[in-house]
Amino acid sequence: MSETELELHPEPGRVQPSPLLQLPTHYPHQILQQLESDRQRLHMSYSNIEHRVKPVWMKYRLFFLVGCFLLAVVVGLINYLSHHFHTVTPCLSPACQWASAHLSTSADPFTQPCDYFLYTCGSDRLLLDSERGQRSHGFTLHAENQRKSVQSKQEDGGLTEDKTLSRKAVLLQYLKKILETDNGMNSSAVQKTKGFYHSCLDTQSIETAGADPFLTLIQKLGGWAVSGQWNQTDFNTTLGLLMRDYNTFPFFNIFVGKDPYEAARGINKRYIQIDQPDLLIPIEWNSQTEKSRAKTETLRPFLASCQKYLDLLGAPKSSSLIHVGSFVSLSSQLAVAFSPLESRLSKGQLYQRMTIKALQRQAPAIDWLGCLQAAFHPLPLSADDDVLLHNLPYIVQMSNTIIKWLNKPEMSNSAPLHTFMVLNLLHTLMPAMDSRFFETAKNFSMALGNTEEEAPRWKHCVLETERGFDSVLTHLLSEVTAQKEAEKIIQSVFNSFKSKLHELEWIDQRSRQLVMEKVDSAIPKLWTTKEPSSEAKLDLLFSEMTVSNQNFFSNYVQLLSLWQKKRIELLITQPEDIDILSVRPFLFGKSLLFPMGMFVPPLFHPTYPRAMNYGAAGFLVAKDILHLLLPDISSQSKTVYAVGECVWTHYLTVSEKAGRGGEFPLSAAQQQEVWVQYTALQVALQAYHQNLMQQPNDTSLSGISYTRLFFRSFSQVNCEADPYHDSMPFEPAFLITVICAKYNLCPTSPQCSIQTKQNSLQAC
């Protein structure tokens, strides 16, 4: 983007120096309007004068030149006044009022000293002026304490305490707001969705109920031997019931999907697929013996956690140890045939096709037709239907193990297989259990070395709601997402990106051709369903569900039965799989799909000033495009190295390390990431200015000028916890000073101005 292009729309608050006249800042608005009117009349007069003076040019040459000079002065003065005293239209929507308040509490990169930029994202450099003053008076943090101080997981609007952006957290916060907003106009499905969420938040009712709801459910299944009350239920009958009504698969997993070998030939048929289960016991793989086993060091804490669960469920202490021992022993035997994905792939054990009848011969312990018919009821499955297996050796080993345990006479009264299934059901229903079960699971996780902090209850509830009501949340999000405006930003940024490619210096013509072909074939668009679900369709889908605001366990059990309907739908139809929690674009064929979750406040809102939307969402879109379409750009273009080193040299100059620049070489990954973020910021800014050419009027917040608001918005999202986070060697907000120095378009120079320091340095 040239400097001329950027200056086509000068900043409304930017002072254009004029030695001719200095006017007071309270110059009357009426006079400005009159001057604007005069400017238009003078412009018309100028055309007429130019036409009439030609015949008498030689005679009145001096008068003509003086007149032109005076006209230029007046027009220049009017331009100066109109730009200098332009009244920025404030945005007063509720979303803008929240954004304005949020912006007022964040650091303004234009007012920060240079040491603000000397920290990488995640350090303590993001302090307000008042906090910075405290630090300068002796409250400096030791480097080790700095690292510890930023490890908190508390989040505010998608920003962690150290102000690192998490797109997923931003989206979850917005979904939380949707679920907690009651506009009184909700459909039945929406009411049930919000009722489910609120019942999850009602921890008091959950604590009061305790383990009773689960114990009642066990009785529905025929009881269990742990309590001494078991109706000797049939093994396969219980297994089919767990698969159908409770989405629980103790001995194997089932899901629905395509055969990739057929999909490569354009065949999109979906199959029932059978895989090894998610065993509760921790296991490890031995690559030399090519066998798995239970982790020896975890057996003691695993045994203790199982014992605790039985205690919470009221099991007699005298017999519970026997049941726990059997559970651990059975789990260990099943783990032997486990195999990691890489091993199964190398051995060709994925997508093995066979009929249900053939599977029955290979693994006779399971009533395969009966269990699969239960899981996909009421679909008419037959023994001749094909299924796809992903670890046949495990399935055979699992069947042999079950037969062995069924034929142990000494185990007939303790029913270890039935207890194994009930404890797996407990694991499925753990999100709906009281805090004692949560604490037991947490203690076991910590014993395994996991130190991740517990998520707040609202986040847990949003995620559980999404698992069951994803179609409703997709509908709600699509209703509040300004799809037209989001599409416009995507297309505008993509066009700006394409124009930027012409500035690159390529290694060779072949590299340029490969990149341009890839870019030209890409079709960027918002990821939405072709046929959005209507409220009537959603109401029908959830018509059989009765939601109680004070019975989360009952609500959750009902939700499990809905997943059976989803499996059936996947098998007989071709539904559009929209991931409501997706926050990053991806390539699907020639389509470059941007999920709706990227376009939520505070990253984007249709009432925000466009400067804010382009500075935040526009920058993220540009950065994602560069990462997706140009992953190997450093080996294809000389520009990446040149720009990366140029920006890095500027950074070292400002940080007063230029004399030791050779000691800080950037790796290839760092050079590319510096180029990506610098280019993304330029692309987003150019897209915004081009948008201003088409629609000159924009709103603002707190009277902040357009370009400055663009950069303020960018500074809120530049520290992002993405996969490339560690490759950025400095705070990306420093790029603001580089661009301001290059284009001379900022309304005011940043306090950390590099213009005077870099007169001898080239523009990047």
UniProtKB/TrEMBL annotation:
Residues 591-724 form the Peptidase M13 C-terminal domain. The chain crosses the membrane at residues 62-81. The keyword Methyltransferase does not apply. One of its GO terms (biological process) is protein processing. Gene3D superfamilies: Collagenase (Catalytic Domain), Neutral endopeptidase , domain2. Residues 139-160 are annotated as: Disordered. Keywords: Hydrolase, Membrane, Metal-binding, Metalloprotease, Protease, Transmembrane, Transmembrane helix, Zinc. GO terms for molecular function: metal ion binding; metalloendopeptidase activity. InterPro entries: MetalloPept_cat_dom_sf, Peptidase_M13, Peptidase_M13_C, Peptidase_M13_dom_2, Peptidase_M13_N. PANTHER family: KELL BLOOD GROUP GLYCOPROTEIN, ZINC METALLOPROTEASE FAMILY M13 NEPRILYSIN-RELATED. This is Kell blood group glycoprotein. It comes from Oreochromis niloticus (Nile tilapia). The gene is kel.
